[in-house]
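Tokens in:
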């Protein structure tokens, strides 16, 4: 652990990967008093200079291994493409860094298992950034479920749909199910506390990118409940939603409804109607705040206090990748896929 973290001072933080979300991480971290944004890394020198200049970061790397060798970096955000997650994460853990890895944990279950092994051997903290677990609307729903207010869960349905503009930007890198469906699948496993035993899924590929734009997955849990995840990255370009995300959870004694699509603000102008993000990472007072900031603050507290992060565990992050991988297998084969103890431990 770095000296500043041991003394309870600011956690010295680096960001590896400066795509859109890496930049959002950097901008959020730059305005957190408990964090010192110390280092940035991307393979693109022009991009590195642009972002580092904006946030006044002096330590700049085009090779992530050089950043990991920097003794003045305590923690890193890994915000690279998912297919780079495994090796970068393992190298970061072996370098003694605290690691916040953006979801999904990795592209395959086998890679997740490699990361899990590295976590068991590492001295640093590790957490996968499942941001929805830090959403106050979701947290309040989880509390109501844990208090027994809706009885035993019997049915869950979620949709998390985006404009095809976003799909065109992302679908060469990741599918809708793995990119967004994983959020709601994780929440369903978290809410129910149950393991999936089977899944049936269908994907649709109307676009021209590598991965399918549409994914639906239905899974049965060991407690008898059913979960349905809908992820469509093909809404019309004129859709007002940044993201149309909603969930219904029905229990034996009640139900609850989470609406993360309505922003609370509608902007009507010459371009139409827009519902801007007001909770995840909106800009305000010259910086970013919101749910992402709370997730990063939680991890920073864990680093500073030495308390292992348990709001989401590495095993939970691995298990939801296994569920989505089974769903994608089902969509490709047209068959129900059963998950045994090894796939959903």
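Residues out:
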């Amino acid at each position: 652990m770095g000296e500043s973290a041991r003394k309870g001072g600011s956690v010295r933080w680096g960001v590896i990967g400066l795509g859109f979300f890496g930049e959002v991480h950097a901008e959020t971290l730059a305005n957190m008093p408990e964090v010192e944004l110390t280092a940035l890394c991307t393979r693109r020198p022009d991009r590195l200079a642009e972002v580092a200049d904006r946030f006044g970061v002096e330590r700049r790397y085009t090779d992530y291994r050089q950043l990991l060798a920097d003794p003045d970096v305590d923690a890193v955000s890994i915000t690279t493409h998912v297919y780079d997650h495994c090796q970068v994460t393992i190298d970061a853990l072996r370098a003694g860094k605290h690691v916040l890895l953006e979801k999904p944990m990795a592209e395959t279950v086998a890679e997740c298992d490699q990361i899990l092994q590295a976590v068991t051997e590492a001295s640093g903290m590790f957490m996968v950034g499942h941001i929805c677990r830090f959403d106050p609307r979701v947290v309040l729903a989880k509390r109501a479920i844990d208090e027994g207010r809706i009885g035993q869960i019997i049915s869950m349905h979620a949709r998390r749909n985006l404009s095809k503009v976003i799909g065109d930007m992302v679908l060469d890198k990741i599918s809708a199910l793995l990119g967004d469906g994983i959020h709601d699948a994780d929440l369903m496993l978290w809410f129910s506390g149950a393991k999936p035993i089977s899944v049936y899924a269908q994907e649709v590929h109307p676009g021209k990118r590598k991965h399918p734009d549409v994914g639906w997955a239905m899974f049965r849990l060991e407690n008898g409940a059913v979960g349905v995840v809908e992820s469509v990255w093909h809404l019309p370009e004129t859709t007002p939603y940044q993201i149309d995300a909603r969930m219904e959870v029905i229990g034996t004694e009640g139900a609850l409804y989470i609406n993360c699509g309505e922003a609370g603000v509608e902007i009507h102008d010459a371009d139409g109607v827009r519902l801007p993000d007001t909770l995840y990472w909106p800009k305000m007072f010259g910086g970013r705040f919101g749910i992402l900031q709370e997730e990063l603050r939680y991890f920073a507290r864990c680093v500073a206090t030495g308390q292992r992060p348990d709001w989401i565990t590495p095993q939970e992050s691995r298990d939801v990748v296994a569920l989505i991988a089974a769903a994608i297998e089902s969509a490709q084969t047209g068959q129900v896929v059963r998950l045994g103890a090894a796939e959903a431990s």
